[in-house]
Amino acid sequence: MHGRVKVKSTAQQEEEKRKEREKKLKIYIAARDGCFTKRKEGVFDDEALQLTQQLLSSNPDFATLWNYRREILMHLETVKEVDEVQKIYEAELLFLESCLKVNPKSYGSWHHRSWVSARLPRPDWARELSLCDRCLSLDDRNFHCWDYRRMVVKMFNVPVDQELKFTDRLIGSNFSNYSSWHYRSTLLPLLHTTASELPPMQAESPKSNRVCEEQLLKEYELVQNAFFTDPNDQSAWFYYRWLLGRAELEEMISCLHVSREEEQVAVVFSRPVNVQSGCLLLVLDGQPHAVEWKSIHPRFKHSPVWICNLPPGTISEISNEHNLTVHWTEKHSRKDCTLFTGHAESWCQDSATDQELFRSELSVEKNSVLQSELQSVQQLQELEPLNKWCLLTLILLMRALDPLSYEKEMLAHFQTLKEVDSMRSAYYSDLCSKFMIENTILKMEYAEVRVFSVSDKNLSTLCHLDQLVLVTHINLSCNQLLCLPPQFAMLRCLEVLEADNNSIGNLEGLYHLPKLEAVILKDNKIATLADLEPLTSCPRLKRLDLRGNPVTQLANVESELAKLLPSVLDLLL
C-alpha cells in the first residue's frame, strides 16, 4: 500500500505463507473436483449448492460454477413449494452481495443476479434499485451495475422523470461521470419529444426522436457549467457533442435517375439499404415492370444506390416521352421522374440544403442560443487555447450554425487540433475532409452545376458519394487520397475524373461507370497492371493519363495496356 513501510519477512515466514497457500489450494481443488463430479453425475442437491457457494465466495468469476448453480436452482424449483423457492432465491441474492464485495465488477455475479431477479416469484425491485444506488455511490462508472440498473428500472416501471433526476444527482456530485451523461442521453428523447404524459421506461430509445428545443436549451446550460468547471474532462464534451447532433434522416428515396442510352434506372436512398425481392416496384408509363435490382458494387449487400437495367428498346427511342415511378413499399416512399422527348437522361433529386443533410434545422431561438454558446466556448478557448475538446466543440458549433461562413475558422482550428493532439491527427484529417466535402456539395447545389471540385483541400478520405450520383466531372487533384473506394461506383453519371498528385494505388471504385470517358491520374502510386483492371469495366473510357506512376516503368507497359484497355485511344505514359 502507498505510504506504508515495507516490512521484510524472514525465510521462515515466507515458508509458512507458502504452506498456507498450498493448503488452501488443495481445499479449493478438492471442492472444485467435487462440483465437477456431481454435475457429471447429474446431482442437484443442497450439498452441491453449498460446494459451489464455497468456491464462488473466493472466486466469483468461475463461469462454469455459476452455470451449475443455475441448474441446481432450476431443479429445486421443481421440487419445492413457491414460498420455499422465494426463500432460496432471497438467500441467493444475499450470497451474491458477498460475491460483489469480493469483486464489484464480476461479470458472473451480475449476470447471475439478473437471472435470479427475473425468476424470483415475488421480486423486491425497490431493494434492487437501492442496491444499485449503493454500488454506484462507491464506483459511479461500474458499467455492470449500470446495465443491471437499467433492467431493474424496466421491470419496476420507474418513471423516466425520476431516472432523469437520478442522473441530475450523480452529475451534480461528479461532472466527470460519463455513465450518467450517457444514461441521460437515452432518457431525454423518451421524456421530452412530446408534451404527452410521462411514459415508463422502454426497452429502447426511439431511434429518430430528438429532444424538444425547450429542454435542449436547458441542457446546453447544464453541460456548459460542467466543461467550464473542468475543461479537460471529456465526459461533458462528449455529451455536448451529442446535443449538437441531429435526428436520423427519414428513410426515403432521395433521388431517381434514368438514362435513355444505357436504359438504366438508378435509385438513391437516404441511407444504405438491402433491397429485397419485391420491396422496390418500378412503374413505367403506368405499367409495373419486373426488373432485377443490383447494388452498385459486388462488395455491398447494403448500399444507398441501387440500379436496374430495362429491357432493350424500352426507352431508347429519343422521340418518346416516358413517366417513371419507383415505389419503396417497405417505407411507403416513392419518387416520380419524367424522361422528356429529346432528352438523353432525366432525374428527380431532393436538395441536400432542403433536407438539412449536414446540419440541424435551427429555429430563431435555437440559433440565438447556439450563437451564445459559441461565444462562451470562444471565451473558454481564450483561457485554454490548446484544449482539444474546446477546439473540437468550436468546430461543431460553427458547423451547426453556418458551415460555409465559418469554413476558414474551422480549417484553422483543425490545424491546431492536429498539432496539440498529434496522436489523433488522422482522425481530425478525416473529419475535416468530411466537412469540406459537405461544404462543396452545398456550394455545388447553390451554383446548380454538375461539376464537383475539391482539389488542393488536403482530403484524406472520401464520403457522401451518394450525393454525387448526378456529377459529370470531379476534380480530386492535389490531396492525400490513398484509394478510390468501392463507394465511388455510385457516380453513375461521371464522365471525367481528375485525381492528379495524390497517393492513389487502388482504383476499386472505378467499377462499371457507364459514362466514364477520361481518367487523369498523374503522379500517384499505381504500380501494377492489376491495379488498373477495374477500368476494364468502363465501356466508354477513351483517355487515360498515368504519367508519374510506377506502372509506367514496367517493361512493355504500352503494349500490355493496349491489350488490357483496347478502348483507350489517348494513353499518356
UniProtKB/TrEMBL annotation:
Enzymatic class: transferase
- Name all Rab geranylgeranyltransferase alpha subunit insert-domain domain ranges: 253-352
From the UniProt record, which GO molecular function terms apply?
A: Rab geranylgeranyltransferase activity; zinc ion binding
* Any Pfam family the entry gives: PPTA
Its domain of life reads Eukaryota
Output one GO BP term: prenylation
Read off the SUPFAM superfamilies from this record.
Answer: L domain-like, Protein prenylyltransferase, Rab geranylgeranyltransferase alpha-subunit, insert domain
Q: Which reaction does it catalyse?
A: geranylgeranyl diphosphate + L-cysteinyl-[protein] = S-geranylgeranyl-L-cysteinyl-[protein] + diphosphate
EC number(s) in its UniProt entry?
Answer: 2.5.1.60
* Cellular component GO terms held in the UniProt record: Rab-protein geranylgeranyltransferase complex
| Keywords, in A-Z order | Leucine-rich repeat, Phosphoprotein, Prenyltransferase, Repeat, Transferase
The UniProt family comment states:
Belongs to the protein prenyltransferase subunit alpha family.
What this chain does, per the record? Catalyzes the transfer of a geranylgeranyl moiety from geranylgeranyl diphosphate to both cysteines of Rab proteins with the C-terminal sequence -XXCC, -XCXC and -CCXX, such as RAB1A, RAB3A, RAB5A and RAB7A. Catalyzes the transfer of a geranyl-geranyl moiety from geranyl-geranyl pyrophosphate to cysteines occuring in specific C-terminal amino acid sequences.
Q: What is this protein called?
A: Geranylgeranyl transferase type-2 subunit alpha
